[in-house]
Design a protein that fits this description.
elongated
Length: 140
């Protein structure tokens, strides 16, 4: 026999972590055996994700993080509030080559006496100077 417990969320008033936590606590005390969480409680938890992170809600309500994350609409994962439209348009600007060519000179000397000098002119697209510097510092 399935027990039904009324879980009421008023649309005009947003639920709080405490009130939904109280509803989960009541449900956990009244249930006889392990079972599925009622859909109304899941919806209340999803509503909380408008104002709180999924991690905060899952931790406060003692819910499975991935279970809650899968129920939160995909728009929420893109940084939008639940219920907001995700029809944002992004424009990629290709500014092309800089008007003036840049020049950079980097000189490094390790404690063991080894030296490295890097000189850059223009645009270096497929070159990672930071990784080369890290390799230099690691070697000695």
């Amino acid at each position: 026999m399935k027990e039904t417990i009324p879980y009421i969320t008023t649309p005009a008033i947003r639920p709080t972590l405490e009130s939904v936590g109280h509803q989960f606590g009541t449900w956990r005390k009244r249930r006889r055996c392990r079972g599925q969480i009622p859909e109304a409680l899941w919806q209340a938890a999803v509503e909380l994700c408008r104002d709180h992170s999924i991690f905060e809600v899952s931790r406060a309500l003692r819910l499975n993080y991935n279970g809650l994350k899968n129920r939160v609409p995909k728009a929420r994962d893109m940084g939008l509030a639940v219920g907001q439209r995700s029809d944002l348009n992004f424009v990629k600007l290709d500014l092309g080559a800089p008007i003036t060519l840049s020049e950079c000179l980097v000189e490094m000397e390790a404690p063991n006496g080894s030296k490295m000098r890097m000189s850059f002119r223009g645009i270096m697209r497929d070159f990672d100077s930071v990784e080369l510097s890290r390799a230099f510092w690691r070697q000695g």
